[in-house]
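seq:
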Amino acid sequence: RSDDRGRTWKHFSNALRDDTFPHQIVNIGPNVIDQPGQGVLVFGNWFGSATGPQKSDQLVVLRTRDGGERWEVESHDAGLQQYEPAVLVHKNRILVVTRNQTTGRDHQQMTWSPGKKPIVTATNMKNPRYVDTVDFSFNPVTKRFEIVRSERYRMELWLWSMDPADWKKGKWRRECRLLAREGKFYSTADGFHPAGAVID
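struct:
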């Protein structure tokens, strides 16, 4: 942690270590949010042990109220194996778009409040092959939610959007292709995890 805008740093050697949580591995999503009254929140899912994956249906929220030195755990059954959730705070609501690892071929939405089970909404964002972690943001110009999402089987990245008023419907609009490259996924390239993308 840096308290002087990055000039000096303090290392918390026991923070976020495998042996400080109920499970050895947690699939962390791309976003860290600082929520008033809650502290800094990180979202993910337990992923078994170092000896091999044991899939879980939990939404795991890691919370620190002291800037990262000590962490608490809150987890809830999401009803699906959700991985690497992308999180956005919009009008005091914590909104989530996550990989549905139960199928591996679609993304789902969740609305979450501290201390409560997430509300899951099915979406129309489906792929014939495996999906990966998305970037999730609110565009202040268009006033729409935006997702940067890979179509790995095509070696492409696409922009999707939604009017915030339609959040409960789970219906996203496929806007445009942002990137395409040659090659074949897994044999000539890997990656295509657009989480943390920046769009002007």
